Fold this sequence. Notes:
Blueprint: H1 3-14, H2 17-38, H3 44-47, H4 60-80
Amino acid sequence: xxxxxxxxxxxxxxxxxxxxxxxxxxxxxxxxxxxxxxxxxxxxxxxxxxxxxxxxxxxxxxxxxxxxxxxxxxxxxxxxx
Length: 81
């Protein structure tokens, strides 16, 4: 461990509990911001058009209608048991 780290630990130990909590919150927030800044955010327009239409050979509305119908049938079977 470096001298600076050890000095910081001693200084932190001398702080009141509420000051230690404020310092911890500050460090966590700074770290969170640094991590968020390092990760580029993806935009939908960057991936638009990548998947071929219709994906997997099925129209999106047909898929929605089919899966809803399947779910309805499954619920009916569960309720009748």
